[in-house]
């Protein structure tokens, strides 16, 4: 799918755009004003096709089936008993 927008285009014009970057993700928002319903419908149709194809290709996130984490603890300390009284 491709939008081709030029300065000479009579059926649509760039109304506004913005861009943001968060971490490793970049997002661009483009607002286009259409003067003809045919071009507008064509663009919507193509966007729906792209959305459906991306949803179908994206594997669903499976719930993690990890074993419960083992509890990490030190063994109980050995108790030091006093030597017995009166004998070996």
How does this model look, in words?
This protein is α+β, with helices and mostly antiparallel strands and 88 residues long. The chain has a domain at 12-57. The protein is 24% helix and 24% strand. The chain has a two-stranded antiparallel ribbon. 0% of the residues are buried. The mean pLDDT is 82.
Percent range of helical residues = 10-25%
Any idea what the radius of gyration is? Answer: 33 Å
Coarse shape: rod-shaped
- Uncertain runs with pLDDT below 50, 5 residues or more? none
Instruction: Tell me the total number of β-strands.
Output: 2
Task: Provide tags for this entry.
single chain; about 90 residues; alpha+beta; two-stranded antiparallel sheet; 1 helix; 2 strands; about 25% helix; rod-shaped
SSE layout:
Layout: E1 12-22, E2 25-34, H1 37-57
Antiparallel strand pairs: 1-2
Describe, in short, the structure shown:
The protein is an alpha+beta fold. The protein has one helix at residues 37-57, and strands at 12-22, 25-34. A hairpin with a 2-residue loop joins β1 (12-22) and β2.
């Amino acid at each position: 799918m491709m939008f081709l927008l030029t300065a000479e285009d009579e059926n649509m014009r760039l109304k506004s755009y913005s861009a943001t970057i968060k971490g490793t993700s970049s997002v661009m928002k483009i607002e286009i004003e259409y003067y003809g319903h045919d071009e507008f419908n064509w663009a919507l149709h193509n966007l729906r096709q792209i959305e459906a194809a991306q949803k179908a290709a994206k594997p669903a996130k499976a719930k993690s089936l990890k074993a419960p984490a083992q509890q990490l603890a030190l063994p109980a300390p050995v108790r030091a008993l006093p030597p017995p009284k009166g004998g070996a």
